[in-house]
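Hi there. Long-time user, first ticket. I'm pasting a complex I've been working with (about 818 residues overall). I'd like to know whether the download I got is complete or cut off, because the file seemed smaller than I expected. Thanks.
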Amino acid sequence: MSGPARVTHASTRAAVLDLVRAAGMISRVGLVNATGLTGGTISTVVRGLIDEGLVAETGHAESTGGKRRVMLQLNHFARYAVGVHLDDARITYVLTNLGGAVVARISRAGAGADEPAAVVARVAREADALIDSVGVERDRILGLGLVAARPSEHHEFGRALERATGLPVVLDHDATAAAIGEHWSGGVGATSTFAALFMGTGIGAGVVLGGTTYRGPSGHTGEIGHACLDIDGPRCWCGAKGCLEALAGPAAVVEQARADRALTRAAGLVGGRTRAATPVAADFAAISRAARQGNTRAVTLLERSARYVAAAARTLANVLDLEVLVLTGPSFAIAGSIYLPVLRAELDSAFIARDVHPISVRLSPSAASAPAIGAAAIVLQSELVPRRQGLRLPDDLAAEEPPVFQALR
Amino acid sequence: MSGPARVTHASTRAAVLDLVRAAGMISRVGLVNATGLTGGTISTVVRGLIDEGLVAETGHAESTGGKRRVMLQLNHFARYAVGVHLDDARITYVLTNLGGAVVARISRAGAGADEPAAVVARVAREADALIDSVGVERDRILGLGLVAARPSEHHEFGRALERATGLPVVLDHDATAAAIGEHWSGGVGATSTFAALFMGTGIGAGVVLGGTTYRGPSGHTGEIGHACLDIDGPRCWCGAKGCLEALAGPAAVVEQARADRALTRAAGLVGGRTRAATPVAADFAAISRAARQGNTRAVTLLERSARYVAAAARTLANVLDLEVLVLTGPSFAIAGSIYLPVLRAELDSAFIARDVHPISVRLSPSAASAPAIGAAAIVLQSELVPRRQGLRLPDDLAAEEPPVFQALR
DNA sequence: CGAGGATTCTTCAGTTACTAAACAAAGAAA
DNA sequence: TTTCTTTGTTTAGTAACTGAAGAATCCTCG
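Hi, the file is complete. Here it is re-exported in full:
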């Protein structure tokens, strides 16, 4: 037998499930075509998924000359996942179903300087309340996704939360979560190469290459906020000069606006006068509002920022050969309408591979709550489409070997 | 059931072979530890590789209290590969063994405006001469790798060369080839994430993520030459402003040097006066020579270029979370000693993940012939470590499905 | 020197997940 | 109705692994 098809996807089951999710609705024959597996294999795999309740037969396609295809769909309400976004100002909780659709959502004040143990207890309580509010059985919750701007600072918190809730907890970067959320919700193709450009108070990017999340060896992938756009530019906290964030991030925009008396007054910026919980986010929102209402100084400021963001986005697209770029995160939720056309124009005119394939630039439909939704999507992905566990290939093989050799014979 | 001496799975075989290559010398137990497979599996896989002549037992390790481990090594002279680098000025041919070491090498004048059919015949003849010069049997040549700055323009040429030589031909980008060459030769770890920054007349980067070459959906990955470093900078041929190539590429350096009368005279630049075959490459070499001899104007010019290249390299490293950055290609072969310290300083002080893991910046030991060696390495990789063929996951599944549905029952 | 333990490598039955091919079911065309 | 097409299931066979037992080799110690 020639059978080459031992599939490299972690499991065929996961691959088929992911295809059903990505397609929305598909028949067994469609799965045969999409996977390259035989009808027999698809038949048994699908039966297993139906028995588990994850997939359901939902109707028939019209005949194409023979028996009609039985259509399959993800049983969206078979399982759920909790997503939690830790921000300085607020903690956002969402409960999503298998399709990544938000079933329930609450938002509470940030933890501030509270005792870690107290925060764990509080987050566990609030997550429980979220689950109870829609009456979902506990064993249908796949897990809890936790995202933050600097996930490495929340490792201990995640472990404690795991104990407190009894749910598996996965921890990730907000930008990566946003990218996975977009991917899971089906806005972009199943195998597409795309980035989610994430703007909160900082700027980052979540990267999905050919349908697979790329995190990098230390999870620091996509740090586009520190792309250099001016080698003699202002010094950034990261140690370099001319970083995108320092030139055009929300904090920089707010600072520039505050230097403008007229704009400060017109937009009603608070940061200059009082100590709000999140002066940058609030003032950036105020500037965006002013721009939408026609304040030319605000428009000029944001368009200047957009030009820098667009240049960095072009660099990102050129380096990764992107097919899709999604703008997401709280700042794009507010000011996306100003940034989007500038980024589109830049990539339409200067993306290096534009003659080979187009690059689609769009605004996330749920930019504001993208991190929390993405957090839940990470749980869905990690539980239902486990990572392909390739062979371990340690770097220092020599170290595993005894150092002294003697010639053969 | 228990059939004797079965052929093992292609991808396992490939993984084991790749481990033997990467480790240099390893025992069966070492392979068990590295792969996670059982001893029995490793035993049969290794027997197959030894039967094929690809691997050999080369000695014993010292005992750790029991039977001594039998050490395995790649049989470097079991197979060979030809690498061809098409440049405007020159065509470089190398013959490498399984380890990626150069066994023979010739270089001839570029094709210029010659008839394509004549060039095919000539390249086939010269490749044959290369093979004959070391007396390697034809059936030990795995194939011919062909690299160029714009591979898409050489598709037809590659097919014709395949017919003319009777060897499988693989075509790729020069920067990608250089990266694979570095990876295969073992300079970087087996699973490391690194980029080969390639500077010829343009600037590009070959990208290897976690040991796997990343080419992107259209093969345009790593276009760092068009990273934006000045949003109001000079216009580049790509349509954008302030691209690295336009600001600091070899062509830009040469242009800046020609504007300097004293430097033009001191370095003996030809481009300004005569029509050399490759004025940019020749003049860039002349400037580098002048800089090494202490000409301060030349040094200033190259260091200015290095600052831009360093800023782009930092952006690349931040976006991809790189562990290693290798400088390669003809221009770094000439001027690497000037660029290297500037890039090192930049990344040591401003790489965003520097506190989590260091980034190693180094010059390729074979920068000048990296494209040709890499071309051969691509053949080795594609023939010996075939791509894991995952499931096909077409993007537009909906299109494969009949559009009209009717409710079930 | 030889028994006994440690370690490495091989053999082989059993399991899993696939394929190929025959079969069954359902609709269209005639 | 009969015949053809298409979809989905069942079944036998097999590639590629695992796990456990056994053989081979080396060291140590009485």
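A couple of notes from our side: The first strand of chain A starts at residue 25 and ends at 27. Residues 85 and 372 of chain A are 5 Å apart (CA to CA).
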